[in-house]
Amino acid sequence: MSYMLGVDVGGTFTDFSLYNTDTKEIRNFKRSSTPDDPSRAIVSGIIQILEECGIAPDEVSFLGHGTTVATNALIEKKGARTGLITTYGFKDLMEIGNQKRPSLYNLLKDKSESLIVPGCKCEVRERIMHDGTVKLPLNEEDVRNAVSFLKEQKVDSIAVCTLFSFINPVHEKRIKEIISEEFPEAYVTISSELVNEFREYPRMSTTVLNSYLGPVMKKYVRNFENSVKEVGIDTKPYVTQSNGSIISIAETIDYPIKTAVSGPSAGAVGASYLSGLSDEHKIITFDMGGTSADISLIQNGKLQVSYDRYVEGYPARVPMIDIITVGAGGGSIAKIDEGGAMKVGPRSAGAVPGPACYMRGGQEPTVTDANIMLGKLNRHKILGGKMDVDRSLAESAIKKKLSSESGLDVIDAAAGIISVVNSNMVRAIRGVSIERGYDPREFILMAFGGAGPLHACEVAAELGISKVLLPGSPGTLCSLGLLMADTRFDLSRSRIMLANKENLKDIRRIFTDLKEEGDQLLENEGVPSDMRKYVYSLDCRYENQNYEISMEIADGQMDDKILSELIEGFHAEHNNSYGYFDRNKNIQLVNYRMGAIGIIDKPTIPGSDTLVQGDVPVTELRQVRYEGSREFVETRIIQRDSLKRGTAVEGPAIIEQMDSTCVIPPGWTAYNDRYGNLIVTHEGGEA
Question: Which part of the chain is the Hydantoinase A/oxoprolinase domain (predicted)?
Fold first, then answer.
């Protein structure tokens, strides 16, 4: 027997997906997270699962892990003491930044807290020109003095970013060698190995972010690796990158910034896989967990990837799935603000103490407490009966913190919590759709995470979306997505030239060099040549513009046909993004990108060939209050594992399962498809 195991750490729960490669069976598990040390929940959970399933540790052939360690270190400002070495005259670049302000009309908005230790920005004399020629050789004495100073300041890591090193990295590489000689224990990031692109500020920012996270991530993944070995699992763990792929522990240590949105990206990958099974090519993903809601968009079956994201106020020039995150989860805390308005989130009760109803000492009213009061969540047990909850504690928290300050009764206050949190999520969905030129009514809303299916239909209704897809195991889709991810290295080069036939030879040469580099990286990961594939894209803009659109191309061996398709595609995408295009303008090529992908064996979710309209066993009848109504409605409670493939359930109904609860409001109908997904449509919509 051989097993694949995916582990996703959330703010409230840690999720596990176990796949038997022989029987093709997938089993899902949930354990409470341990925020003080996330690895404790992982290791104890793995031990329990292996014992419960009678699996020997050496039967685990793959272990994938989605982590929030990098994200939390940035949010909580608990990264390493970091110093900077840069070209003379440019040490204040991180403070100067660019012309983008975090709040366009607020000149008093505070800037993000500096990640560099005060006084630890060092300059060295050197200068490389825009064409890669050396104008001023590196002054090695300056470097040794800078390293000695940073060592005296007790920094843990050093970021190195010099001008035009993305064209000629010779000075940065020598600086790295000198640091190794003078201060070998320091963690070092040089920009030319991380961001091989132009624009000094994003390149320096990404380098600093990576150095800031390096020692923290190194300690965590080494502890995780050792803990896994102690359990008896011999295989080396993989960690999810922000682009939705997986990388080895060694790669994670070198480039931790690539894991900034590790956990949410795994959910998007899982959603992409399920959208292919369902033959749906336009999906808005809605991943609502205990702490936050993560929203992304799948167009033509492909996830949207951004190369220009901000992480805690700083640009990170690494590829990330374009995910918008809002502080709206089951544990989000509700309060009445100074103006008398109800606010929900972004502060969360987390795993400890958790929502008041969890009986762990929580005193603040949360979204979960509101759902229990309204009857949408089981008022006695959740997680398939494995976890007790107490409705009276939820009622007490809402009454004490909200009703006493607003004049609302407990039920209206609970309904208010749901209305506010739904509105927060609607705004986020508009951010990935309407604000980027997409009509959400043309998309299906795929809801997952422990709380996503609770809110999906009501959120969809507010957006005019008439079709919702609820996966078979929505609460653990992120951990399943870890088993669907491939290994991937994203490589890039910067060179500005026009998109014309005269430059085809130079374009092909750049992509050939990138492919050779990608092959070497895949070779280091042990990926056989017949399990490799490559994707190519170009960052394009009209001449005299300063912002680019990334366009995927069919092949790196550019020819007249591919060039023509690129030009036509760019005009169309520019029109979609900005509302206009101009065929008379020249198109510039700026960045050349290649993804070197190592394909791994993945779980398969078999579809049933037998679809029947079976009976729907009802376990109880419950009074439930839905969004937009002031009355409670008698609602059937159904266990999801009792639904046969092909069965339809008319709302109002609530479908309970171990990892989530699916709410089917009045006017909606849920259909259990051949893959076990619930396709929920509003009256007038099509299944």
Answer: 203-489
